[in-house]
Specification:
The complex is a heterodimer of chains A (about 240) and B (about 850).
Chain A (H helix, E strand, L loop, with lengths): L24 E5 L7 E7 L2 E11 L8 E8 L15 H17 L8 E11 L4 H16 L8 E8 L2 E4 L3 H4 L5 E7 L4 E8 L4 H37 L4
Parallel strand pairs in A: 4-5
Antiparallel strand pairs in A: 1-2, 2-3, 3-5, 6-7, 6-8, 8-9
Helix pairs in contact in A: 1-2
Chain B lengths: L8 E10 L5 E10 L36 H6 L1 H4 L15 H7 L11 H9 L6 H18 L8 H10 L2 E8 L7 E6 L12 E4 L1 H4 L7 E6 L6 E2 L9 H4 L3 H7 L6 E2 L1 E9 L4 E6 L9 E6 L7 E4 L3 H4 L2 E9 L8 E10 L3 H11 L26 H6 L1 E2 L6 E4 L9 E7 L5 E8 L10 H9 L3 E2 L4 E2 L4 H7 L7 E11 L5 E18 L11 H27 L10 E5 L5 E6 L4 H24 L5 E4 L9 H9 L9 H10 L6 H14 L4 E4 L28 H13 L11 H23 L5 H10 L5 H16 L4 H23 L1 E2 L7 H13 L3
Parallel strand pairs in B: 5-9, 12-14, 15-22, 16-22
Antiparallel strand pairs in B: 1-2, 3-4, 3-6, 4-5, 6-9, 7-8, 10-11, 10-13, 11-12, 13-14, 16-17, 17-18, 18-21, 19-20, 21-22, 23-24, 23-27, 25-26
Helix pairs in contact in B: 15-16, 16-20, 16-25, 17-19, 21-24, 22-23, 23-24, 24-25
């Protein structure tokens, strides 16, 4: 992507956003009736579907077993994807998701049982992990599984001496550094942090701060969506207070 | 989005990209449209949240801002650079969204085309702006036009298309009178689907798609709705040069106004690029790296070459070669090869003619296995040959009739009374094949040259001079090998018996330079004898000719001009050549011999004999003749060759012989071209020779000058069992050879008539310095004939005549470049051809 100006002198990115602006996020909860909990999220053109299923199994006696399955639809990328799941990248992503939610779910409330988190990427345009985490959080909330806090993820990069937030595929593939952070926004605790490519350590804190700020922005949107959803459901069921 | 901000409007941009493997992938990128960018103008009406520092970025002292879209900004940047126009906002993003989204709906934003804008605001204020706009627009248009070429299809597709009949293969032939627009593709002769028979019109430069005159191209036919007729108008701008040529093309075409198959070039099988003679245009600036040169042959597009010698080469004819023609280039790229010399110089013009016609200038290579004939080692007849051949040295009086000074005498005659009262007529042709063995270097060289080329003051031989001017030439007083055809005629000159005595040894008793010179000959004791023989011969010939004319042979008109050169090689005078009956006599004998040889080889080699045929002329080509004749109150019947000949005979206005001559010239023009062919390739009915009214014909009598005759000689030798038939070419090979010879023949003809050279140059030269070179012959020639021909589309007629003249002229030129005029390729031509042959031998 050499020669592509990721950030113009006027401070606009290729797609017209400023450095601190997220992509447009749209989400819905409870998209499936069969699953215990489900959610759909769009972050720009990255579209992810998540579903939760809980079951009693005698695997672990003291806490719940969190099981993840991450997959990308064959049509999610520009070129047809040959192995929707089971390749190294998906396995890694699966593992990351499991670690993330292991840390966020109050696991000791449900001994001898298992929570399955299914994540399907329908369209991929950068920030797959972030969208997956955000979708899974919504789905867990939809399922009524107690969490320490929302888990919000956001990515950031560093271009022309300024950090940019929520990078899309074009920015992701430009070879610039990429930091992915998942946080518990209220406590600003970081549950997951991953960095690709190289970044000078002087800039690390700036970029991480930007990403955490992005997570907080995401949290605002998710929280609004959850509240809207709950009030909607309550109206339907006549639980209004 | 950061919380608290208005959400941005999101859009998608679809892009198609290629991945590393060359596959196309479709990519969607999102785009956010912002409405929060301040205008920074002091005149802001919308209360933009302008920064304090940046306010005033857009000046307030103007009436309007102009926002050019990217296309306009790119193409017309020069206009926006004029200092008078201010208040231009160049947008960062693509402008079509502006056009679509902000069009006139938004307050204070008006979307105009650039032209409207300039018209409205600047037309009166800044003069010259509109001119600038127009000129840029014009140049853009030509650019767009020139880039209209399509790439060629891949070879596999072409091959498949050719097989399935979707595409047609043929040689492209650019219309001389409309070189910019029209070209025609002649379907290849062997094309089995030749049912439509007509040529395919390629209209316009983009359909021609970078094909250059002569290339073997693949054509795709356009849908029938897009077919069109050829233009009837000669393009005005070049009329000077071109009306002279116009006729040649019209002849090959169908009825002019008719719609004809139209196609476009989709691929090129073979480039026929050669070296082209070109000149610089007058106003080319010196010093620039890339220069366009104008080829002499205006069917060739201008060629872009890079040279730093523009100034030195400005007034010279140069040779350039085309290297490539890129899809996005209007002109082909080439390079400068060499300079021929200053324009107008005799040598320059001649070498230009030769280069243009791809005639080999090089002398013969050293490594040829040639016989020796020097004073130390005189060449002698081999004893072994003597036993095989029939010795005619003592029994026959053999003589040749050629103009004085002729060096390559290849045909001689003999006539004598036999004891039984019959007459024996012999035609003896130089035995070239004895020296030129098939496959030898000399043979290969001759095959490439195919023909001897004659110019007014020089000639380029087909065979090395030791053969052409010495050992193969039937010179008086020496022993030579020959191939003879001998007939026994009864007293009524009906053929009693014909034999090909094949090989004979001849001794020419005397060359009869021209009949009228005989009395001055010192060999008085033989003069009387010769004289009686010649008159006998003339009588026989008259008889033969009468029979042929009865059969429908055409007698067409020719005008011959004799060019008298001074020592400095300028043309001293042009005189109409006397037409002597002896010429007809010789011609008749040669036709007779050719005919019989054709019979013989066609009988022995039904599948691979080299013959010459002259197909029926197309009816529409007679239109000119018919209308001209009608103007004088004659009707011409063109149903058969006999009818045509008869009606031509009737077109006589007493006291005005030119009328008949003219009509005959026109008839000549209507003829199609005679050509060589291999008997295996055509059906028996196509063998005939229209002009001569003979069922079979070939060329046999000039082996020194024509390669076809050499081939026929070999075939005849094999046919009479003198040599084996092992080395003879098969049908396919022979057909290719025939094509090659036909091509070379045409070249030679066109060289002699040399229309190609810019007529204007020629005329200049002619008028400035009296007559310089062979090139100008025609011009002088033109002047000579102008009065005669004027009334009937002078130039066209003349041009045609010139075409035909070559063959005839051949020998005369040798001496003093006489020009005979027949259509070389036509019946008439054949007639005179042979007459020329006869005339050669003095």
């Amino acid at each position: 992507m050499a020669g592509l100006e990721l950030l113009s002198d006027q401070g606009f990115r290729i797609d017209g956003r400023r450095v601190h602006e997220l992509r447009k996020i749209q989400c819905r909860l409870g998209v499936f009736s069969q699953a215990d909990g489900s959610a759909y999220i769009e972050q720009g053109n990255t579209k992810v579907l998540a579903a939760i299923r809980g079951s009693k199994q005698k695997t672990l006696h003291d806490k719940v077993l969190v099981n993840c399955q991450y997959s990308m639809a064959t049509f999610s990328t520009g070129e047809r994807k040959r192995r929707p799941r089971g390749d190294r990248k998906s396995q890694e992503m699966t593992m990351h998701l499991r670690q993330t939610f292991d840390a966020a779910i109050l696991t000791n409330l449900y001994p001898r049982s298992q929570i399955d988190i299914f994540v399907e990427v329908l369209q991929s345009d950068g920030g797959n992990y972030c969208a997956s985490v955000n979708a899974a959080t919504l789905a867990l909330i939809d399922a009524g599984i107690p969490l320490k806090d929302y888990v919000c993820a956001c990515s950031a990069s560093f271009v022309n001496d300024s950090p940019i937030v929520d990078i899309n595929y074009l920015e992701e593939s430009s070879g610039k550094p990429e930091i992915i952070v998942a946080t518990l926004p209220k406590s600003e605790q970081i549950v997951f942090l991953e960095m690709n490519s190289r970044l000078h350590e002087d800039n690390l804190s700036k970029v991480v701060d930007t990403a955490v700020k992005g997570c907080k922005d995401v949290y605002q949107i998710l929280d609004t969506a959850v509240r809207d959803h709950v009030s909607q459901v309550a109206t339907v069921h006549g639980w209004e207070n | 989005m950061s919380s608290g901000e208005e959400p941005l409007e999101k859009g998608n941009r679809h892009v198609r990209l290629k991945n590393v493997n060359g596959k196309h992938i479709s990519v969607v990128r999102e785009v956010y449209r912002r409405d929060d960018i301040p205008c920074q103008s002091l005149l802001c009406l919308a209360n933009c949240p302008n920064d304090k520092d940046d306010v005033g970025l857009l000046p307030a002292d103007i009436t309007h801002y102009v926002i050019p879209d990217c296309q306009v900004a790119r193409d017309y940047l020069e206009i926006f650079e004029t200092p008078e126009i201010t208040g231009i906002i160049f947008l960062q993003t693509v402008a079509h969204s502006i056009l679509t989204d902000c069009s006139n709906k938004t307050i204070n934003v008006f979307v105009l085309t650039l032209k409207e804008y300039l018209d409205t605001f600047w037309k009166l204020a800044v003069l010259g702006l509109m001119e600038l706009y127009d000129s840029i627009t014009a140049s853009l248009e030509t650019k767009i036009k020139s880039k209209g070429y399509l790439g060629y299809l891949p070879t596999e597709v072409l091959e498949a298309g050719l097989k399935s009949g979707q595409f047609i293969q043929g040689f492209i032939n650019v219309n001389k009178s409309n070189a910019a627009e029209e070209a025609f593709v002649k379907r290849k002769r062997r094309d089995p689907k030749d049912n439509e028979g007509s040529d395919i019109l390629i209209h316009g430069k983009s359909s021609r798609n970078r094909a250059i005159h002569g290339d073997l191209v693949v054509v795709e036919l356009l849908p029938r709705s897009e077919w069109r007729g050829r233009s009837l108008v000669i393009k005005e701008e070049k009329q000077e040069k071109e009306d002279a040529e116009e006729n040649d093309d019209t002849e090959e075409m169908e009825e002019s106004s008719n719609v004809m198959p139209t196609g476009q070039v989709v691929g090129i099988v073979q480039r026929q690029w050669r070296e082209y003679v070109a000149t610089f245009s007058q106003n080319e600036d010196a010093g620039s790296g890339k220069v366009l040169v104008i080829p002499w042959d205006f069917r060739i597009p201008k060629i872009r070459i890079s040279t730093r010698q523009v100034n030195t080469l400005k007034d010279q004819r140069i040779v350039v070669k085309i290297d490539s023609w890129d899809v996005d280039s209007q002109y082909p790229n080439g390079h400068f090869v060499k300079s021929l010399g200053p324009i107008g110089d005799l040598e320059t013009e001649i070498s230009a003619l030769l280069v243009e016609n791809s005639i080999l200038l090089t002398s013969f290579s050293e490594a040829q296995e040639l016989p020796v004939d020097t004073s130390e080692h005189p060449w002698e007849i081999e004893a072994s040959e003597l036993t095989k051949r029939r010795d005619l040295r003592d029994t026959h009086l053999i003589f040749s009739i050629d103009p004085k000074g002729c060096e390559d005498v290849d045909d001689t005659l003999s006539v004598r009374y036999l004891d039984n009262g019959n007459i024996e007529l012999g035609v003896h042709i130089a035995d070239v094949t004895h020296f030129v063995k098939p496959g030898s270097l000399t043979d290969q060289e001759a095959k490439i040259r195919s023909t001897t080329v004659y110019l007014a003051d020089r000639r380029y031989d087909m065979l090395p001079s030791i053969l052409s001017a010495n050992l193969c030439s039937l010179i008086s007083g020496v022993d030579r090998y020959a191939v003879s055809v001998i007939w026994e005629l009864d007293s009524c000159y009906e053929i009693a018996q014909a034999m090909f005595d094949g090989i004979s040894v001849t001794k020419i008793v005397e060359n009869v330079p021209e009949l009228k010179e005989i009395p001055q000959n010192k060999l008085s004791y033989k003069v009387e004898e010769l004289r009686s023989f010649v008159s006998l011969l003339m009588e026989i010939a008259r008889h033969l000719k009468a029979k042929r004319i009865q059969g429908g042979a055409l007698e067409l008109e020719s005008v011959e001009v004799q060019v008298q050169l001074t020592e400095t090689k300028s043309i001293a005078d042009l005189t109409p050549k006397d037409h002597l009956e002896i010429h007809d006599t010789i011609a008749e004998c040669m036709i007779f011999a050719n005919h019989w040889v054709a019979k013989k080889i066609a009988e022995v080699f039904p599948n691979n004999a080299l013959l010459r045929h002259h197909p029926l002329p197309k009816e529409e080509q007679f239109a000119n003749l018919l209308s001209c004749a009608a103007a004088r109150g004659f009707t011409i019947n063109i149903t058969t060759n006999k009818d045509l000949a008869d009606s031509l005979d009737k077109c006589v206005i007493p006291g005005d012989p030119e009328v008949n001559k003219l009509l005959r010239s026109l008839a000549t023009m209507a003829m199609s071209n005679a050509s060589y062919f291999s008997t295996g390739n055509l059906s028996r009915t196509e063998f005939f020779h229209y002009g001569l009214a003979l069922d079979l014909y070939t060329h046999f009598t000039s082996p020194i000058r024509r390669y076809a005759d050499v081939l026929v000689h070999r075939q005849l030798m094999a046919a009479i069992g003198y040599t084996g038939s092992s080395g003879l070419p098969g049908n396919v090979e022979l057909d290719e050879l025939a094509e090659h010879i036909n091509y070379k023949h045409r070249v030679r003809i066109s060289l002699n008539d040399s229309w190609a050279h810019s007529a204007s140059t020629r005329i200049d030269i002619v008028s400035n310095q009296p007559f310089i070179s062979s090139i100008q012959q025609e011009d002088t020639h033109k002047q000579q004939k102008a009065n005669m021909i004027k009334e009937v589309s002078a130039a066209a007629v003349e041009r045609r005549i010139l075409t035909s003249s070559y063959e005839l002229g051949v020998n005369f030129e040798q001496i003093k470049a006489e020009y005979g005029q027949t259509s070389s390729n036509q019946s008439f031509y054949c007639l005179f051809e042979s007459f020329k042959e006869s005339a050669i031998c003095s």
